[in-house]
Structures are given as structure tokens and as C-alpha cells.
Amino acid sequence: MLSLRYEVWRRRNPDARLSEPIFLIGCPRSGTTIAVELFGSHPDVANWSEAGRIWDPVDFWNPEADHCWGTERVSREEISRLHGRFEHFRQIRNKARFINKHPRCTVRIDFINEIFPDARFIHLIRDGRAVVNSILTKTENEPERHPIPFGHFCKPPGWRDYLREDPTEQAALHWHEILNYVLDRKEMLGDRYFELRYEDLCKDPRLWFDKMYTFSGLPVTEAILENIPAALKDMGYKWRQQLTSAQIETVNNVQAKLLKKLGYTV
To answer: Does residue 29 lie within any of the structural domains?
Structure first.
């Protein structure tokens, strides 16, 4: 149910538009949550993440729903609704810019770009083997995820083709297909796309937040960067300890070519 405050504001601002929103995207379990929380420490940023039921008020909990959306889903009503909800949030927070991190937006670039043609996308990439290990661990520790396709994580485009009895192979394909979807759109987005590695972010967060803020058109000062830790703990080593040699072979069989393209050692 919409709040009375929003309804009153909307009647007064029926044509409200959100300017230059920032979307932080990445495969599930890639570090996007900590990244957007730190990004939101900037004094000029209104951070509304996840907002899953704002994006998808009808099928958010539907286990059979497709998460990948194209331009065919765009309508005047959706443009007005999403601009209105997010611009209202920015205004009540009294911030210059808006950022959202919702994993499903990673496979909705075409949809988002049609609605917000001036949007900027920050893509956080993590070693696919670490992502697989994290997906498997999270799913094992949360039994309620077991009966839901892809554990209720963001599903890749054409997800039914990548369902597997072997959860390791499925998780490897999960990362591979989501990454390929985004990388296929880099050229289209041009200078509105920024890419970085989770591992680099952990080593020198202040350097990379300086780059992300600059890319986003936000001011950067020493005081702002002091809100960012000097280092983040990189948990990427765990996959070497927790995956079996057979699992690592399975993952590499799916991911090796793309891992090498992205600069990871296989």
C-alpha cells in the first residue's frame, strides 16, 4: 500500500522524473551489498536498496517468474511509477543523487535503460569460483531456498536451460550467464558503464570509491573518502579450501574461458 505522504506528493508532482540514477549491478554473492552500503555513505547519495517489491510488485515471490526483463515490458505506466517512487525517495532524503542495488536489475539492463536513459551502471565482478562457493554455502545454510529455482537468487536469462541436478554446475552456469548478459551490453552503455573487480575493491577501497564517485559525477574529498575503510576483508580464498577438486574442475569446465578473459588465473 502506498503511503499517504507519497500519494499527496504524487498528485502534486505527476510528471516527476529521476535524473541520472546510479545502479550497482553484479551477480549474486559478488559483494554488491557492502559496496552499495559504502557508496551510500556519500553525503549526496540517497540509497534505496533492494526495493524488490517496488521493481516487481506482482511476481517478486513467484518462483517461476523470469527475472530478465527487456524493453517489451516498458510502458508509460511503468515509466511514471518507477520515476515517481524513486524521485520521491530522493527528495525526502534531500540528496542530489539516487542509487539502487537490486540483484535482479543486473539482468534488466535493457528495461532500465529504456526507462532511465541517463542511468549510470557500476558493475562489480567477482571471481566466479568464489561466487559459486558462496552460492552453495548460502543455499546449504538456508533450507527455505532449496525448493526455489536458483535458490531465490537472481536467475540468469533463459534460466530453465541452466537447471542442473549438480548444484555446483548450476551455480557455475549461473555466474557465467549473468556475466555474459552484462558484458554483451557494455558497448551499448558506453561511458555510462563502469566495471571493477571485487578483489581490487577489497585491496584499496578508497581508490575505487574515488573512481566510482568520479564516474557518477559526485564530488570527492578526503573527508568523504575517510568514510570508506582503508581495506575490506577479501573472502575469496574460501573457495580453494571449501570446494573439492572435483567441484573446482566442474566450475572451471564452465567458467575457464570467461575467467581468463576477465583476468583471473585458471
So the answer is: yes
What is the value of pTM for the model shown? 0.95
163 domain residue, yes or no: yes
216-259 residue pLDDT tens = 999 999 999 999 999 999 988 899 999 999 999 999 999 999 99
Domain count of the fold of the chain: 1
Contacts of the segment 52-60: beta carbons below 8 A, 24+ positions apart: 52/102, 52/104, 54/82, 54/85, 54/86, 55/82, 55/102, 55/104, 55/105, 55/108, 56/104
Please, what's the b/e burial string for 144-161 (b: 16 or more CB within 10 A of its CB; e: otherwise)?
ebeeebbbbbbbbbebee
- CATH number of the CATH domain containing 198: 3.40.50.300
Quick one: which of 151, 179, 183, 196 has its CA closest to 38?
196
The upper half-sphere exposure of residue 198, i.e. CA atoms within 13 Å in the direction of its Cβ, equals 27
Residues of the domain holding 98:
4-261
Residue 210 lies in a domain: yes
Summarised one tens digit per residue, pLDDT across range 86-122 is: 999 999 999 999 999 999 999 999 999 999 999 999 9
- Residue at 142: amino acid letter: E
